[in-house]
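TOKENISE THE FOLD
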Amino acid sequence: MRAFYVRLRSVFGEICVLKILLLIAIGFVVLAVIRSYQRSLNKPSAPAKRETIVEDMVKCAHCGVNLPRSEAIYSGGDFFCTPEHKQLGKK
């Protein structure tokens, strides 16, 4: 009879260890889910889509650099990238 109780205690001991390991595993999963959720709250939302503005490019008559028309200096029918190149004129 004593051997039966020793064996029974051994079986229940193994079950308790398995239950503890299972609870630890569940705890890690819950912790991972909570951390993932917290990280998602801290992320900035996706930026709003900006409308792409297409602009003509022009070439500097002095050095040949391409630049947007809005940034170019127009003089005498030619475009220049800087006031210095405007003064130097066409190459």
